[in-house]
Amino acid sequence: MTAAVALRQRVDGALPHRLRRSAAQTDEGHMIRTADLLGWLADRARAHRFTVDRIAFDELDGWSFAPGTGNLVHHTGRFFSVEGLSVTLGEGTVPSWEQPIIRQPENGILGILVKEFDGVLHFLLQAKMEPGNPNQLQLSPTVQATRSNYTGVHRGAEVPYLEHFTGPGRGRVHIDVLQSEHGSWFYRKSNRNMLVEATGEVVPRADFCWLTLGQIGELLRLDNVVNMDCRTVIACLPIAAGEPGALHSDAELQSWFTVERSRWDPTIECKPLAAVAGWERDAYCIRRPDGRYFRLVAVSVEASSREVSSWSQPLIEPTGTGVTAFLVRDIGGVPHLLVQAKAEAGLLDKVELAPTVQCNPANSAHLPAAERPPFLDLVLAAPPERIRYEARHSEEGGRFLNAESRYLLVDVTGDEVALQPPAGFQWATAGQLGGLAGHGHYLNVQARTLLSCLHAGAARLP
Amino acid sequence: MTAAVALRQRVDGALPHRLRRSAAQTDEGHMIRTADLLGWLADRARAHRFTVDRIAFDELDGWSFAPGTGNLVHHTGRFFSVEGLSVTLGEGTVPSWEQPIIRQPENGILGILVKEFDGVLHFLLQAKMEPGNPNQLQLSPTVQATRSNYTGVHRGAEVPYLEHFTGPGRGRVHIDVLQSEHGSWFYRKSNRNMLVEATGEVVPRADFCWLTLGQIGELLRLDNVVNMDCRTVIACLPIAAGEPGALHSDAELQSWFTVERSRWDPTIECKPLAAVAGWERDAYCIRRPDGRYFRLVAVSVEASSREVSSWSQPLIEPTGTGVTAFLVRDIGGVPHLLVQAKAEAGLLDKVELAPTVQCNPANSAHLPAAERPPFLDLVLAAPPERIRYEARHSEEGGRFLNAESRYLLVDVTGDEVALQPPAGFQWATAGQLGGLAGHGHYLNVQARTLLSCLHAGAARLP
What are the residue boundaries of the dTDP-4-dehydro-6-deoxy-alpha-D-glucopyranose 2,3-dehydratase domain, all occurrences included (chains A, B) (predicted)? Predict the structure, then answer.
């Protein structure tokens, strides 16, 4: 005799509704009023000593340039390393180049724990300091752990709440998908983006706070409060409401993307950091003589709230502030976003969908207008009434120093951008992008940040 | 004034129904009765001279071992090359090895054109000869073209019907997705799998035939009639009927897969073919001294029906016949297939979902039972009444010589395989696998062959 097996519904039809209900609750949550959140964050920042100092590479503890290759590595061989990359795209204003790049083959976990209070889903976020954050402390997922973190190489305290995401006793998994990170700075990096619903009681520890999705949305309107790891998980939420249609069917959109991905046949070769052409190293940084793109620097960190109390590490420091924007246009009564099929050297599968504009304007300021990124001037010149959303967000503060970008949604008209945009661009709805975010290899991390603002209600489409 | 824009439905809700109606029509199509198909194929085979002879490498025309690397390359630098790979998986019965591997970075098109006749969708297939096919002529997609084919490097005739798949006048695209090919023999190869519905008249040329999906299903019950390129496209059809549920929700299944993919951190390095350890080369082949896995050989081809009338090329010739099987089990009234998360050295993202058993038994015959592939003995010992489906199919005859495998679906009971299978295996429904086949990086090509048999009705689940 075999006991009857209870089947599960393949798709949790109630989840989108529950997420939208959480997004609609903006003023207060089970634990804190939205108006009090900045005070709570300031309090958390005061509770922890945290100083970050730039140091020379030879002052790094545990890190050194490997003999021969010159790669910047940790003595354990874990965490990450900085190596070299040679790239030949064959087209564009910079058809080939060499650069340092971070290699971190392990897939970490970016996991948010959710639980219902008073019938509304709340997200357990952590006030977490990272050395590269411009304001040090931001809200991060419940768990933000490299495999080194949770397999013990870090030699620090255990990762709180990790048991909800791994092992037999974990909660109900709503999302668990590998998503890429910055293709310009990471070599084929991806992390597990997870949303797990707790099945039992969860006691919020110090530095942790239960927030509704709407509260997170309110915070996403502010500069540098919700960190990248949090944003990318929220981008993966299956929250999309129905749309009456789209300019292109899902199949047509996927076909366009397939053509774009197939169009590129880049030559990407790893090489020793010491052999990278066009970059120079002094005691404190590795940079290009023209100062463009980014610098590799080293910092020391003194903190009390992190897994270990002090450490030093390399960071990538982009030069200048980025501009990352989707153009938004009404098409047939449905808002559409102009996506870009963007080749990035570090992406595993060459091309992912990016915002319309994703660049650092300083890097192209010396170029004639025709060679600057398409639509950049349109975004920079947008009058206030056209700017549907703007906030500054920074990228992962554990790897990037002051990597800030202006994230924008900018309204345009049919006279400015036609239904048939230039090659490499295409119109898609938020629902279409949300569907693709349920799988890896489609949306790059910058596109996911802007999508998270829509999911959490920080920005609304017309 | 802007003209009103007609939006499209994001998902074509009628397509699954139309595909199922085509699958249900098994006896005859618009153009030919199913009973007459083998006669038509034999007639096509007679119409074309086609001889394949094994030759020495130095008799290859246009191909040679490159000085220094020893890589086997075409003088144009196009088509493909045979290079070396060094693999360290770190676990399994063979934790590290070196091997020759085919590199072909371009994404070709595997495209089937469909059109309704008498209210039923028909698929335009081609009777096509490939040198590696054990029986030379099989049914292939309407278009089976490398980029070299259609950008003219081949210097042959134009590819018929290509205009339906590319360019502004193409038909209605139902499917266009990049799918992997054999990870043991190809280095990061993928092709566009396309299904396009013709918008106007289409005249079937000689060697082409309109078939219902049900007719293709009948042919899939036979050995070596429907080629791999055709099978993988059919696997991507959005045909799944609703299921009342599954042992695991889609999110849980994806999470299991994410864990499996993250678990592997293989070291894969390209190296010169001349430097590959453990293989030996003579005038006619490159092989291992123990004869296992495969040989690299060269053939000359004389044909009249292909784009060019004669050529020579290298082929990979696996040793022995493969066994590729899904175990099938009823769980809670719904049939489930036992999928394997299989690491293959040539896959772009390390791991894809494979059938329960995918191996060449000869390669493990020398091993103790505990080290042989899990479930292989169960498949080999299955009594006839347990074998739900069996046919021999061969892999891409343009690259592989006599690469035949027994493809099976084998019924098992709960006493034989539990709800919680061994690590690396999981139960999934056909509908779940069909959903994943709509995206790349999920199902390997062998799993797609078996899925195509279900989609076309060659095999039916209980």
Answer: 35-237, 251-454
As beta bridge partners, residue A145 has A109
Please tell me the predicted confidence (pLDDT) of residue B1.
40
Asked if residue B154 has pLDDT above 60, the reply is: no
Residues 6+ apart with CB under 8 A from A415: none
A332 CB neighbours in chain B (<8 A) are: 4-7
Q: Among A100, A104, A99, A102, which Cα is nearest to A88's?
A: A99
- pLDDT bin (cut points 50, 70, 90) of residue B205 is very high
Report A:37-76 residues touching B (Cβ under 8 A): none
Helix (H, G, I), strand (E, B) or coil at A127: strand
Closest CA to B391 of B173, B276, B228, B256: B228
Number of cross-chain residue pairs from A and B with Cβ atoms under 8 Å apart: 130
Q: Are A404 and A394 in contact (CB under 8 A)?
A: yes
Interface of A with B in 233-252 (CB under 8 A): 243-252
* Residue A419 at interface with chain B, using a CB cutoff of 8 Å: yes
pLDDT of residue A242: 80
Predicted ipTM of the assembly = 0.96
Q: What is the mean pLDDT of chain B?
A: 94
pLDDT in tens, A400-433: 999 999 999 999 999 999 999 999 999 999 999 9
Q: Domain extents for chain A?
A: 15-50+106-235, 250-267+321-455
Chain A positions in Cβ-Cβ contact with residue B192 (cut-off 8 Å): 258, 262
Please determine, for residue B105, whether its predicted confidence score (pLDDT) is greater than 90: no
The CATH number corresponding to A250-267+321-455 among 3.40.50.880, 3.90.79.40, 3.40.190.10, 1.20.59.10 equals: 3.90.79.40
Report CB contact under 8 Å: B11, A249. Answer: yes
* Span A351-360, pLDDT tens digits: 999 999 999 9
In angstroms, rounded to a whole number, what is the distance separating the alpha carbons of residues A301 and B353? 43
Span A15-50+106-235: which CATH code?
3.90.79.40
Do B15-50+106-235 and B250-267+321-455 come out as alike in CATH topology?
yes
Contacting residues for B317 by C-beta, under 8 A, at least 6 apart: B132, B285, B294, B295, B296, B297, B400, B401, B402, B403
Q: Determine the distance in angstroms separating the CA of A251 from the nearest CA of chain B, rounded to an integer.
A: 6
DSSP of A137-196, one letter per residue?
Answer: EEEE-SEEE-HHHHHTTT-SPPPTTGGGTSSTT--EEEEEEEEE--TTTEES-EEEEEEE
- Residues comprising chain B, all counted: 462
Of A150 and B39, more confident: B39
Per CB-CB distance under 8 Å, the chain A contacts of B90 are none
